[in-house]
Amino acid sequence: MSDNPRFDRVLIANRGEIALRIQRACRQLGLETVAIYSDADADSRHVREADIALCIGPAAASRSYLDPDGLLLAARATGATAIHPGYGFLSENAAFADAVEAAGLTFIGPTGASIRMMGDKITAKRTMLAAGVPCVPGSDGPLPESPDDVIALAEKIGFPVIVKASGGGGGRGMRVVHLAEDLIDAVGLTSREAQQAFGNPTLYLERFMQKPRHIEIQVLCDTHGTALWLGARDCSLQRRHQKVLEEAPAPGIDPAVIAEIGERCARACRQIGYRGAGTFEFLYEDGVFAFIEMNTRVQVEHPVTEQITDIDIVAEQLRIAQGEKLAIRQEDIVFRGHAIECRLNAEDALTFLPSPGTVTRWDLPGGPGIRIDSHVVSGYTIPPYYDSLIGKIIGYGATREEAIARLRVALAEMKVEGISTNIGLHQDLLANPDVRKGGMDIHFLEKWLEERATP
Amino acid sequence: MTGPASQIPVFDPDDIARIAEMLATAGLETFELSGPDGERLFIKISQPRSLTEEQNAGPPRSQEALADTCVAVRTPYFGILSYTHPLRDAPFAPVGSRVRSGDVVALLTLETLQIPVPSPADGEVIGITAQEGELTGFGTEIMKIRPASPA
Known about the structure:
The complex is a heterodimer of chains A (455) and B (151). Chain A is of the alpha+beta class. Chain A is built from 15 helices and 20 strands.
């Protein structure tokens, strides 16, 4: 850390595994941690291990993890001068990032202006086009008023098209249209939904890619003009737009192609003055990359990149927020081996419904190349109020095959009782010949689940 | 409050009425304003006691059971805990004192913000269970009350 750190006590405005991950990074850098928590998380591991722990509200996230005023008051009451938002909750809330900085505290993330720019999908796409980041062919702006113009535009782009809400993201506020005659109804419906869900009825149009993969580029930028790309992740295995299993590097894509797209992402970051960690998400089909959105925060799947680059992304976030220069240069970044992350959820194996409750047995696997990021301990009760992620098992190997082999042993070794988990799903996935070959598209998992459900 | 108390030289009855209306709209019960020369304005208005009464309206209990049951006073927010009003010497509700449901028994302070901690029941204070002057979290038990027997 620098001689004059901007902060020495960090408030972690999150819960679960990412709160523990942030706490570990803080500790390694000699920073004190403040764990704020809701009534439902009093027994959480990072809460018990924090330098200062403060319950700030009831289980309802709106009155705890999503309460900007409460978080700011808690920071000042505990003497924390920096806030790490983690992912989810307020991590991509531009007004919160602005409020933190206006209060004289450090927001460990990009500026509110960057978050706002990327939060509006039309602005984000325009910015990316201007910076030379490839985008899906589409309206490149809000839809025209006249229905005839909308249809003409869609025909120029080429059916099928996808109608998307400018304020949407994460799979919400979108509709696929295959035929011109269905387009105007779909536009009306999506616009009304977008108004209700995001308070913004603005829509745009893109070509609907049929069998794309989800490929994303991790970036890391300091406040001294350095922007690095940390390779690609393949997060194509998704169910209902929720990632289930992620890996790095992306199988079967020429590293030179990734390097070119990575450079473009880094250049875009320099152009917009981006700060901190971020992810450019792309659809990839037939050798074509198409930007979909940028996540202006650390992501759940960041460990697979950490494993193949040996860079601690959360620690770098903290160093960047301290105002330090990145000590890594692009030419120093070497991608070594292969890493796969299985997201562990407390959910029913068949219905995928959340399975909260008390974990009565929690036997963890180990051995070379196995990393576990989890806040769960034996006897811990998973509260029903939040998402069902209970941890991540990351398998690393010199090759993809070795990573899979290690993961399969680890998943078989892991024993969890008291709740249901998706460990079995991961075991089945890693035994599947298509998954072992790699390069699945984003519809693979849902189709496979459908087939599996039909006897 | 947005401005220093000295900007309000006298307590105009119209102002008081307006403040009372604002309290009613905001769902607040009491308002206290102290000036630099010791003048003090205290407004208490009756609000529907939805929250506190709901909490107390448990299943009917026998008188013996009630006498044995202690009610915990829990903090409705977080802040620095004080059992005494900053401008007074005596605590709000020392051990042995009688309180009524809704009475302020402690304060949580966060910078200029003061959050009253109300008693959830009528009864007698039988114990202080948190530390004065400490940063106290949401939902912390700070006091035990023996509820008054129903008349």
